[in-house]
Amino acid sequence: MDSGDNTIGATPMPSGRTQATTRRTFLGGTALVGVGALSACGSDDSPTGTAIPPTETSTSLPPVPKLNGDPFALGVASGDPNDTSVILWTRVITNPSKADGGIGSVPVPVSWEVATDAKFDSVVASGAEVATADFAHSVHATVDGLKPDGTYWYRFSIGAAVSPVGRTRTMPTDDSQPSSGQFRFAMATCQDFQGGRYGAWGDAAKLDDLDAIVFLGDYIYELPNILTGPNGDTSRHYTSEVPTDLPGFRARYAQVKGDKQLQAAHETAPFFATWDDHEVQNNYTKDVDPELRQAGYQAWWEHMPVRLPPPQNGELVVYRTLDVGGLIQLFILDTRQYTDPGACPGDNPVGTVPDCEARSDKDRTLLGDTQKAWLLEGLEQSTTTWTALANPVLFAGLVTGTVEDPATKAQVPTFFQDTWDGFPAERATIRSALAKVDNPVVLTGDYHAGFVFDVNDTDAIPPAEGPAVCPEFLVTAISSFLFSEDYTKFNPQVRYFEAKHGYAVCTVTQEDFSCEFRYVDDVWDADSPITVGPTWAVAKGEHTATEVTQG
Ligand SMILES: [Fe+2]
């Protein structure tokens, strides 16, 4: 594990972009940059506080255009921390309902600063970026030279306008342990805007001790409006059509990211995010229209605080690791971009099928050859106490119901073939690799209910025969419609199941790995009471989780 480079599978920001070539980063807090140029033509809008004072004139930054409104309407975010660096994100936008964000096509200079206190008395890094219309005026600022295992606060400014303040973290270095004795992260997924409000994010935003937020996909949904709130409430309906191009996807992100509770969660801790299918198209595989995929991927990139280059030709490597000293290494996966289409015929409207011979073809892949090789090599080399897959789709296997076999008239089990159930040969390979690492854990999203599974060493349907390789903690949806079938009746490998909206907070120490399930009582109430569900934990050296605290 190299200090300062925790992105095994990813490439750094490209140096050829306008944004990168004009970036100026200064460390030490005394050498602010370029804001003389910013203030020369600056907007008088100052919706959120005091401007960062100008100390140096630069000729390389464009003038600040006239901005009609708060340019930080989508908030701020940070992400992909390593031991000395973090990515800071914002998007310059004054009118989220307009395709150009209300900014037009002009470049916009954006300054940022990082401090060791929330009042910015002690600024330790600052710099400036140029946000361009090519990337929806998004900003991905790389802050380097920070101290490991540190808590920092950051903000942006454009002329006199200053953004909200975000809190972020760096990770412990190499083999060292967190000074707090733990790595504590929120885990979330599936936030269909039309499915309800983001009370779960509002709850997460109140936690002041999170080291990170792991997001497992479905940040936006491409769906048409099919859900309505109580008493005909359409206030969460999408205001744009199903996206078919880049402006369409941008419109979805602009609407979703306008939610203040989501913004507050981003301000709480750095994200470590992957995508699932709805960032492009429901249940898509590698055969999806590449132009649609490029549009979806670019809009995702523009709106996420990721240490990645922008996608090209419908391709973007998003699998990478989050290294938390010697405590835990998380491998975040992409289970859509390289994925073979479903093997079994007879997909019903909810996407489940009975078994077929083609499912077990040894060459079928969910990860694609390159990602699979990267993961297997990474697992083999992992030396941390814990090793986790941050994995969008269900790994352990799940029988969803039964259908009548036309030939035998017997009831046979069905499953979702866009989960790992559709790829048993590849799953067996990954499962064998997990069995060889110390203390493996699988973390999963996508399924719209809370679960704990035993990942059993079998591909039987249901996978009830052990022994267990590791536990799988599957987090429920923030707001997407719930899968409320009682899966426990078909699936002995399910240790816990609850069909409620919410998220999870996981705590990793040298002794154990635990996840607390947190649920909103009413997904349509932004201020809903929170029900703290059970905490399930696996002790170091064990292969199954147990319920340690009842909800
Ligand atoms: Fe989802």
TrEMBL record:
* Alphabetical UniProt keywords: Hydrolase
Superkingdom of the organism of origin: Bacteria
EC numbers on record:
3.1.3.1
Which CDD domains does the protein's record reference?
MPP_PhoD (cd07389)
Show the InterPro entries listed in the entry.
Metallo-depent_PP-like, PhoD-like_MPP, PhoD-like_sf, PhoD_N, Phospholipid_Metab_Enz, TAT_signal
* Compositionally biased region (Polar residues): 45-61
A Pfam family of the record is PhoD_N
Protein source organism: Candidatus Neomicrothrix parvicella RN1
Q: Which residues form the PhoD-like phosphatase metallophosphatase domain?
A: 185-516
Protein's name according to its UniProt entry: Putative Alkaline phosphatase D
Molecular functions (GO terms):
alkaline phosphatase activity
